Automatic annotation (TrEMBL):
UniProt keywords, alphabetically: Kinase, Transferase
GO molecular function, one term: GMP kinase activity
Every Guanylate kinase-like domain range: 1-175
GO annotation, cellular component aspect: cytosol
Entry-linked InterPro entries: GK/Ca_channel_bsu (IPR008145), Guanylate_kin-like_dom (IPR008144), P-loop_NTPase (IPR027417)
Role this protein plays: Essential for recycling GMP and indirectly, cGMP.
Reactions the enzyme catalyzes: GMP + ATP = GDP + ADP
UniProt cross-references to SMART domains, sorted A to Z: GuKc
Protein name, per record: Guanylate kinase
Protein species of origin: Lacticaseibacillus manihotivorans DSM 13343 = JCM 12514
Length: 184
């Protein structure tokens, strides 16, 4: 499970886990409009407010005015193919997910020293400037900058101020995970 504030690099980390460790991301659902480069069924299952309620959710949240949810359907589809999967969640969803799935879940919490950089990262990603403003003014944005108390004991913090530094921390985490799994 990968969590942290918007723009800290959660999706970038999940892509790295896919490319380097063949860990596939669990697709989640959202009512947010598609970004110019996003693909239905790959980046998200894009839902209408009506179709959103047709899935069975492990958890669902409202984030900056849109609904997001991680479905049992998507998780089981990922587990059918692989022993490990990653999922990208806001911190509220991450707390619920950890509570529901227990020891099956490992948490990466992404941080950045200077949150002002996040705005430029989102704009460089091609996000609509109005959506970026709304998001940075949302209570969810402020909340997700801080590692929640509920995840403190179990989360591994990954500082993503620069990618080389983040990559090294992820590789170290994966090494430790491989050792843990081999020990069972
Ligand atoms: N270490 C880094 N240095 C510079 N840019 C980065 C770094 N990590 C990620 N980025 C870029 O920052 C942007 C945001 O990254 P990403 O989409 O992975 O964030 P996110 O946490 O998934 O965001 P959101 O929660 O809004 O979906 C992307 O354009 C990505 O390429
Ligand atoms: N609790 C959940 N959070 C989710 C889910 N899918 C994505 N997210 C998080 O929402 C925000 C915004 O995402 P964006 O793609 O619009 O930038 C971000 O923190 C994601 O991690 C979910 O199913 N449940």
């Amino acid at each position: 499970m990968i969590t942290g504030a918007t723009g800290t690099g959660k999706t970038t980390v999940s892509r790295y886990l896919t490319q380097t460790y063949n860990i596939q991301r669990v697709m989640t659902h959202t009512t947010r409009p598609k970004r110019f480069n996003e693909v239905e069924g790959i980046d998200y299952a894009f839902e209408t407010p009506e179709s959103f309620d047709h899935n069975h959710y492990i958890e669902d949240v409202t984030y900056a005015g849109y609904r997001y949810g991680s479905s049992y359907e998507s998780l089981y589809a990922a587990w059918d193919k692989h022993n490990f999967a990653s999922i990208v969640l806001d911190t509220k969803g991450a707390i619920t997910y950890a509570q529901k799935l227990g020891v099956a879940v490992k948490t990466l919490f992404l941080t950045i020293d200077d949150p002002a950089i996040l705005k430029s990262r989102l704009l460089e990603r091609g996000d609509d400037p109005k959506m970026v403003e709304a998001r940075l003014e949302s209570p969810e944005y402020q909340r997700d900058l801080v590692l929640p108390a509920e995840l403190k004991a179990s989360a591994t913090v990954i500082a993503n101020d620069n990618w080389e530094q983040a990559e090294a921390q992820i590789d170290q985490f994966m090494k430790a995970l491989a050792k843990e799994v081999a020990g069972f």
